[in-house]
Write the structure tokens for this entry.
Amino acid sequence: METLDIPLVNLAVAFLLLLIPVGISIKYGLKLIKPLFVSIVRMTIQLALIGVFLKYLFQWNNAFVNIGWLLVMIVVAVFSSVKSSSIKISSIFLPAFLSFSFATLTVVFFLNVFVVPVSSVFDARYLIVLGGMLLGNSLRGNIVGISTFYRQLKMDSNHYLYVLSLGATEKEALMPYLRESVQLALRPTLASMATMGIVTLPGMMTGVILGGASPEVAIKYQILIMIGIVTSTIASVVLTIILTKRVCVDRYGVLRSDVFRKETPSRRKKL
Amino acid sequence: MSGTSAVIEFAGVNLSFSGKKVIDDLSLVINSGDKVVISGKSGCGKSSLLSLVLGFVKPDSGKVVFSGVAVDGKTAWKVRREIALIDQDVSLGSGSVESFLEFVSELKVNAHLDFSPHKLMKFFHLQGILHKNLKDLSGGERQRLAIVVSVLLNRKVFFLDEVTSSLDANLKNKVADYFLGRQDWTCVVVSHDPVWLESPSVRVFDFEEKVWKH
């Protein structure tokens, strides 16, 4: 069973659907046309480029290139998750990168070695596609987890210091915040797993079925990818917090204020 | 321990927050058993004295010494275990009173303590709050709960930051008498309440003028 190719002209027809959101936006003054247009153009260009890129990537199928590309994806994922927290990227890029890489690579290689019978664990089709699925899906969890941890710690600093004054070790004092962040980070994944197949028909399955595989195969892939997502999300959130904490919390156990981004540019000191 | 050994010592301490000078070349000694009240306008940085000893803020220059040991990133952890703090906002956190007490008693450092709060809770009129949520307690109830916990920690040095602000006259006296009556306790009290300032057993340090008043 071959997937039906879509002629470019037909794809252009799909864009006509956008007349509906544009019409709604005009009627209700939603001011969504510009952001919609920008996002659509970005998506189209990025996907077109990646389509060409992936074509060659699959053709070459070189282990080093594949690993390299996976690392590029990890760098982008790290940037997006750190960017949405209030911490400076320069302070925690390296620890976050190490955590993401460790979590993603461990899960991908585990799946490629022990679960999916691929001939080469570096095979582009499995390494990059599975790695990308893991990164993309654990990204939201990571964003929630990392930003929650530091936001709570900062907002709750009086209570945190009180707990230190009670004689808590750093671990004892930080643990409640770690727990809360990881639970929040996992909540969407756990919720979507619990309704999977009934409410959500996940992208992975859609892709595999459209790609010509039977639903039975699609389901197996979906199951392994969900297990991978939960594992890599927990691992990367916890690892990122543990490793960034060494930078963001000083020897006194106090959250360093200089690792946070300045909220307003205050560059008006005695000129 | 002799009755007059120095517990806390500030030697030429300077501190500023985002460019604003809060403490300017302060030298101050607090001895074991002292009852010291720090007075001064609110917002002038009195609490930062306590934060310095606990290692929550670091001086720009000068030295803070606790029981003969300079407070730094390594020693601060030990210093905190010798001091019972009640902060101005009484930041006990959220959850039930019972779970809060459990959290405190389960900290490694407190494992050896006999952590039974009932007698003290009765003494400070706190019966029947165990199952309440901390957020639902009145300001006065939270202050008294923090007081009970500070006593249960079985420490000898107390940092009491505005701990009677929400209490009625009767309870204010009860709390002040309780702390000031213990000879072996060293108390550093931040307050502008006469119940502390006018007690004959305290020394008052004027934080703005940097002088002992009496």
